[in-house]
Amino acid sequence: MSEFVAELIGTMILIIFGGGVVGGVVLKNSKAEGAGWVVITIAWGLAVTMAVYAVGGFSGAHINPAVTLGLASIGDFPWAKVPLYITAQMIGALIGAGIVFLNYLPHWRATEDQGAKLAVFSTDPAIRSPFSNLISEMIGTFVLLMGLLFIGANEFTEGLNPLIVGALIVAIGMSIGGTTGYAINPARDLGPRIAHALLPIPGKGGSDWGYAWIPVVGPILGGIYGALFYRAIFMQELTVAFWILSAVVAVILIGAASSELKKGQTLSNKVENQVS
Length: 276
Fold this sequence. Notes:
0% strand, globular, 11 helices
């Protein structure tokens, strides 16, 4: 199997299981309806595990442009292969989303909630606040890349690595994923979002393109910074790229904190005015 086909199939498997569990939980008249966040996070972790088992021996199972770019940024993956991998990941995500659509054919009609239908394909924030949402995606993918490099630095009994990686995904989802739905993967969000826009889903509504840049830009920035941070702090390999991205991340963090503090102050002033 070629690396292109492996990344395509791996990402397809990821979306079939990951998008599939969301469909089961949120679509009407599914036997899994209402199963909740814990079920979703566990299934996403297992989705990654199965994808890594399936194609890890052929391509390394990046199944995520943020992983591909993060590893390339520290020299652990050749830049020449980056376009090939990302293209395969996007195609795989599209195909996986199409299969999820087919699996739940009668349930789209039974579900009136347009947001629930979109959630099967892509993420959305619990509280819409662009800078803060961007930070959440950055942090999640930062932890993902750091975790992958931590795992790679340890020796496990042969065959256990995919399970440990899956556990990492579950931990991210349960701990910090509740803010945005933890895309932490541009292909995982953008590919299915495109599928949502193209597929003939009854009463589907819009694909929320105004938000779509956040689960793309956030994971890319967080993934690259996570890889550079690991090399800088743990391996003592300081680079110009690390310092430049550190400055960019600092500006985003300060901007987000300032924006939220202003919103909080405005709310406090309104409450005080109402009381007085």
